[in-house]
């Protein structure tokens, strides 16, 4: 009888390991239907398949490992973070496995599914208004204040260099291995900037001709900042986890060669196509990234495939207006 778990069946069965050992080493898939006929392939890294359902598992583990190694984080302490939700879920996994308490400060725009997931994982969730960085109510300012007032450890994904570093050491390294060192362009949105800065820096060190491109939601101020050094107007948009009114410290402008602006409508339309046509169960920012990747691939002039990331999973957006009506 066929035993799918027998090593000879080719499923790559490995010895049992802690859930944290399964962060990263995600598959890279070719978008065979959506990108058919373009001059170069479009390849997408399935970060939604991380244990916590997003790319942010990588930085959650890296930031805690780094703080432990530096001796600034001790057993039983409380972690606090400003999060769109995904870093919170990653930190909740790490906190559970390592014995920390966790407080997550989230803007009210973020999906209730993410709040529910965080609460289920044992994190305390503080919801604050969608306020600009200049306001004391902004999620990053509230997290910093809570850390100072209570002696909690601010994991600080927006500034912590361990964020950028883990993408250089793992995400970029995996992409180089999975493409045999051939990448024409890498494109991604920026929330903290960790993905784009870290992957961009490592790829550029290896491949001088590679183009590093920011995919920015229409309404975010980051695209203008990349192009001319001054943030654009701080508008609103529905895609979660990417774009900002002010550039975060972990977004390194010098590694970015260009920008693609993507509307909510284009992003959510592409998520539906990724689900239906490619079987990829991903969230809104994956749509933004893939819209931008397709534009780059179609324009041509690249020395290799366009690579992007699918940052998170669709299951955290089921209650969102943009996902309604998918059953029709
Ligand atoms: N997509 C989603 C859904 C996210 O939550 C995030 C992180 N905020 C990103 C993309 C962007 O990743 P980064 O912080 O590395 O720029």
Automatic annotation (TrEMBL):
Catalytic EC class: transferase
Domain Tryptophan synthase beta chain-like PALP residues, every copy: 20-312
Keywords: Pyridoxal phosphate
Catalysed reaction equations from the record: O-acetyl-L-serine + hydrogen sulfide = L-cysteine + acetate
Known cofactor(s): pyridoxal 5'-phosphate
InterPro entries for the chain: Cys_Synth/Cystath_Beta-Synth (IPR050214), P-phosphate_BS (IPR001216), TrpB-like_PALP (IPR001926), TrpB-like_PALP_sf (IPR036052)
EC number: 2.5.1.47
Pathway note: Amino-acid biosynthesis; L-cysteine biosynthesis; L-cysteine from L-serine: step 2/2
One Pfam short name: PALP
Name of this chain's protein: cysteine synthase
């Amino acid at each position: 009888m066929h035993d799918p778990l027998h090593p000879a069946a080719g499923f790559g069965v490995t010895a049992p390991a802690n859930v944290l050992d399964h962060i990263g080493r995600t598959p890279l898939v070719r978008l065979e239907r959506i990108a058919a006929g373009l001059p170069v392939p479009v390849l997408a890294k399935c970060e939604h398949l991380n244990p916590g359902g997003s790319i942010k598992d990588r930085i959650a583990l890296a930031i805690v490992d780094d703080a432990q190694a530096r001796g600034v984080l001790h057993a039983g302490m409380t972690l606090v973070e400003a999060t769109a939700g995904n870093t919170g879920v990653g930190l909740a996994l790490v906190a559970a496995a390592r014995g920390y308490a966790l407080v997550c400060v989230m803007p009210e725009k973020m999906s209730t599914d993410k709040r529910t997931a965080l609460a289920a994982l044992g994190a305390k969730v503080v919801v604050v208004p969608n306020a600009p960085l200049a306001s004391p109510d902004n999620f990053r300012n509230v997290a910093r204040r809570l850390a100072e007032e209570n002696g909690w450890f601010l994991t600080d994904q927006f500034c912590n260099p361990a964020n950028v570093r883990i993408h250089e050491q793992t995400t970029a390294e995996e992409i180089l291995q999975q493409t045999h060192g051939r990448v024409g362009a890498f494109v991604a949105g920026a929330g903290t900037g960790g993905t784009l800065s870290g992957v961009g820096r490592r790829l550029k060190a290896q491949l001088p001709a590679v183009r590093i491109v920011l995919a920015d939601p229409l309404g975010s101020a980051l695209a203008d900042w990349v192009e001319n050094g001054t943030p654009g107007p701080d508008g609103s948009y529905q895609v979660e986890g990417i774009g900002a009114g002010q550039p975060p410290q972990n977004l390194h402008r010098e590694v970015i060669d260009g920008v693609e602006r993507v509307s909510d409508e284009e992003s959510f339309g592409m998520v539906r196509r990724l689900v239906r046509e490619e079987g990829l169960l991903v969230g809104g920012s994956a749509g933004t990234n893939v819209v931008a990747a397709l534009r780059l691939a179609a324009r041509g002039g690249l020395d290799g495939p366009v690579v992007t990331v699918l940052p998170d999973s669709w299951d955290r957006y089921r209650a969102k207006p943009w996902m309604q009506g998918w059953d029709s």
